[in-house]
Amino acid sequence: MRAASLATGATDRTLVTIAEEGRRPTPQGQRASYGTCEGWTNMLCCLKAWLEHGIELRTGFYA
Fold first, then answer.
1. Averaged over 48-57, what is the pLDDT?
2. DSSP letters spanning 25-61
């Protein structure tokens, strides 16, 4: 992962930017990048549920 940033605007919204580099331009590298993208998407959805509603979606998920 190269960079992760949070930007909060005046409209009560937050933009999260995550950029990754270094994947090889092969089918395996492409699959790995999609897996990483799915992981970040899951993490951000869990974080949103926790921040906005106090729901912890990850409890017991990795046990």
1. 90
2. SSHHHHHHHHHHHHHHHHHHHHHHHHHHH---TTTTT
